[in-house]
Design a protein that fits this description.
three-stranded antiparallel sheet, alpha/beta, binds 6-phosphogluconic acid, about 240 residues, 6 helices
Length: about 240
């Protein structure tokens, strides 16, 4: 596993990550590169940069398959929707809609939505999907996607997608399970802000289990792993110069 930690001043963070995403996608030799998008707030500015010059013309958008690492069980018009965030910051700004596969939250129960999403991933990428690029934010509790500390889904080995409650309350979630992340060719962790300094120190310099801090799943990723941090998130690290 290739591994790296990159630290950027806050104002350069989004641009640096956007450059890395473009590099990953343009270096891919796959006919149809696939990217698993992160939700939350951190990626918003990164997605906005991707659809601005110069990057907007550096990506062959129609050749890429976009999926979501997790989704909140709300309508796609809801402010909490990860699909809505990606549409507004990125896809709506493109000349034509690329291949975006969202979780259908409009009918049924979260568990049914999860099964349908798994079937869609398998239909597009085969039964053992190996994403070109997985983007992950990290919560202050160390969660990634909607894999929360202590979740039974951290030991899920047959399903690729499952549903779960959100521990802090709020809508249920649909999330990829660990193997989708660990089988990826490249995983980028995107973490910024002072509020993440403590958890990033535990992720990178601690010895917690994956059950305690799901983001430590990075050690099991078969492909390459890079952490993109801003200087605030990196401020507690001893082995990395912020
Ligand atoms: C979600 C995300 C989640 C997020 C982290 C960090 O749906 O909320 O997938 O895993 O990446 O909670 O969120 P922020 O970027 O908002 O800090």
């Amino acid at each position: 596993m290739a591994f790296g930690v990159e630290v950027f001043e806050g104002k350069h963070f989004a641009g640096a990550v956007a450059e890395e995403i473009v590099a990953c996608l343009s270096e891919s030799t796959e006919k149809r590169p696939s990217i698993l998008l992160s939700g939350g707030s951190t990626p918003a500015d990164i997605y906005r940069q991707l659809v601005l010059p110069p990057h907007v013309s550096e990506v062959d958008w129609k050749s890429i398959d976009f999926f979501f690492g997790d989704e909140r069980w709300v309508p796609h018009t809801d402010a909490q929707s990860n699909s809505k965030m990606a549409l507004e910051t990125m896809f709506a700004k493109l000349p034509s809609m690329p291949s975006v596969y969202s979780v259908d939250t409009s009918r049924g129960k979260p568990s049914e939505g999860a099964s349908k999403y798994e079937a869609k991933i398998k239909e597009v990428m085969g039964d053992a999907p190996k994403f070109t690029l997985v983007l992950l934010g990290i919560g202050e509790d160390g969660h990634i996607a909607s894999l929360f500390p202590g979740s039974p889904l951290l030991n899920e080995t047959s399903k690729l997608v499952a549903s779960c409650p959100a521990p802090q309350g709020g809508p249920d979630r649909v999330t990829v399970t660990p193997q989708v992340i660990t089988d990826a060719s490249r995983v980028l962790f995107l973490v910024k802000g002072n509020s993440k300094a403590e958890i990033i120190k535990r992720v990178l310099e601690g010895d917690d289990s994956i059950e305690e801090i799901p983001a430590r799943i990075y050690k099991k990723v078969k492909g390459s792993v890079r952490f993109f941090l801003d200087s605030e998130a990196a401020s507690r690290l001893e082995n990395v110069k912020a």
